[in-house]
Amino acid sequence: MKVLGASVLVMESLTLGFAILLATKDHSAAALIYGSVISLLLFLTAGVLKRRSGFYIGSIMQIFMIAFGFVIPAFFLIGVVFVGLWAAAIIVGRKGEAARAAFVAQAGEKP
């Protein structure tokens, strides 16, 4: 769950960083700073996923990612796609960790 979540957050950060590069000519400095801060926070949140609170922070960051759509309208769609990937990372990650725990428990029982 941690690896999948971190990969989604890092990809979001990179996507937003490249979008900021494309938006430098068309948008104000405040919008670019807002995007840069979100990109940095997404990247840093990937490192905090070791704790349970990291997933809550990551979920809040998804809202900010969609809100960046007010600056670059395409990010409404991109944000929704990344929210789907974030949800999938959490769901698939939980199932994977449960399967791994069951496998480790089963391997520990055999002599």
TrEMBL record:
The chain crosses the membrane at residues 29-49, 61-92. It comes from freshwater metagenome. This is Unannotated protein. The keyword Transmembrane applies. InterPro entries: DUF4233. Keywords: Membrane, Transmembrane, Transmembrane helix. It holds the Pfam family DUF4233.
